[in-house]
Design brief:
Layout: H1 9-19, H2 22-28, H3 34-40, H4 45-73, H5 76-95, H6 99-127, H7 130-144, H8 146-162, H9 165-185, H10 198-210, H11 212-242, H12 247-270, H13 276-297, H14 304-330, H15 337-363, H16 368-394
Helix pairs in contact: 1-6, 1-9, 2-8, 3-4, 4-6, 4-15, 5-6, 5-9, 6-7, 6-15, 7-12, 7-14, 8-12, 11-12, 11-14, 11-15, 11-16, 12-14, 13-14, 13-16, 15-16
Keywords: Membrane, Transmembrane, Transmembrane helix, Transport
Subcellular location: Membrane
InterPro entries: MFS (IPR011701), MFS_dom (IPR020846), MFS_trans_sf (IPR036259)
């Protein structure tokens, strides 16, 4: 397998940035289509919401061992195979009416996303060093947020004009283009291969889990993204079914909230040199204050504007916390970049899936007040973790 050529480094970097949002594209592009999918496939809302949760679970679990595999066998071949299978799986999803086949394809797509995204995260650690590495890792988390921003906006129009299947046809074409360009311009970046042994894997995981700062960081990443995914699971049903707006409006709402996540990422990058724990603590306090304001305001005002404005501000704080902690975690063990990135993503997305789907199942939000209640559960858990970090810091 040929190595990455110096003359192609810039193009390969652009391609890496293009692959990074794949998980977000695969989760968010069909959000405005969820109500229509439930109707056309004759399924309850919970069954369609489950297509998102099982994607996240398989995506998260895959990252536990994807990092070890790419650290042992390289990044390039894994990326090519993942993109090729993406093409096939998205095409099958678009052409079936069987919910069980859709579930199977979503599980496969989650697995492929895990391999593709982990390999590209490690790419930046392989190719860049020092401040440039820190710079690109921070930008990477912002680029990753592009998927959730543009995907539902595009998906809303695709749903309106072509139906829910068109979302997956578009993803198949996008994957095919990336596969061709990756084959032509990219190459292997792994310089030294770690042995692929279960004993080695357990030893590395044990070392990482013992690092309390790393462990708490993974938890905070999962909680932060849970807030976004919580709204994704219930938002389109509330906007389309309860408020009576179209799928295009639902797409616009997701677009706006995607920008909130990106703004949080940009703020995280802008304040990257500020003292870490104080800025996380302040962000969490602002987040809780916004959630309480949303809760109280729900007794006086409830419309699409109030819902989106409060969600927008809360998602900024979530994006800020996620950017800081995710950048910190994946750069924490540079000699095992793939493993660290995979473990961070794995734990974060399993937490995201469990908490977001669990809170939606518990509350079954249909109005703004219930959305605020869901946010509060996650914000309070974040406050508990930040408090534990602060207490531990004070005793060291």
């Amino acid at each position: 397998m040929h190595s990455l050529k110096n003359k192609n480094q810039f193009i390969a970097t652009i391609l890496a940035f293009a692959v990074i949002p794949m998980s977000g594209l695969a989760t968010d592009i069909y959000l405005p289509s969820m109500p229509s999918m439930a109707t056309e496939l004759h399924q309850p809302e919970s069954n369609i919401q489950l297509t998102l949760s099982i994607f996240l679970i398989s995506y998260g679990i895959t990252q536990f061992f994807a990092g070890s595999i790419i650290d042992s066998f390289g990044r390039y071949r894994v990326s090519l195979i993942s993109l090729a299978l993406f093409v096939v799986s998205f095409f099958i999803t678009a052409t079936t009416q069987n919910i069980m086949i859709i579930y199977a394809m979503r599980i496969l797509q989650g697995i492929l996303s895990g391999f593709a995204v982990v390999s590209k995260r490690a790419f930046f650690v392989d190719v860049y060093e020092g401040e440039r590495r820190k710079h690109y890792l921070s930008i990477m988390t912002i680029v990753w947020s592009v998927g959730p921003i543009i995907a539902p906006f595009i998906g809303g129009y695709l749903q309106k004009h072509f139906g829910w299947q068109s979302n997956f046809y578009v993803l198949a074409v996008y994957s095919l283009l990336l596969l061709i360009l990756e084959f032509i311009f990219s190459g292997e970046t792994l310089k030294s291969r770690n042995p692929f042994h279960i004993e080695f894997l357990i030893k590395e995981y044990e070392s990482m889990f013992r690092a309390k700062d790393f462990f708490y960081g993974m938890l905070m990443c999962g909680l932060s993204y849970s807030m976004v995914m919580f709204f994704n699971l219930c938002g389109s049903f509330i906007i389309e079914h309860k408020m009576g707006y179209s799928e295009v409006i639902a797409g616009y709402v997701s677009l706006v909230l995607g920008f909130a996540w990106m703004i949080g990422g940009f703020l995280g990058k802008a304040l990257i040199n500020k003292t870490f724990l104080p800025k996380i603590r302040y962000a969490n306090m602002v987040q809780l204050a916004l959630i309480l304001a949303m809760f109280l305001a729900s007794y006086f005002i409830y419309n699409i504007f109030s819902l989106v404005i409060f969600a927008f501000l809360i998602h900024i704080t979530a994006g800020f916390i996620f950017n800081n902690y995710f950048t910190y975690c994946i750069g924490r063990f540079p000699n095992s970049a793939g493993l660290a990135g995979g473990l961070t993503g794995g734990v974060a997305f399993i937490i995201t899936s469990a908490i977001s789907y669990g809170v939606v199942a518990l509350i079954k939000p249909e109005i703004q007040l219930e959305v605020a209640e869901g946010y509060f559960i996650m914000g309070a858990l974040g406050f508990l973790i930040v408090s534990m970090v602060r207490i531990r810091k004070a005793h060291t």
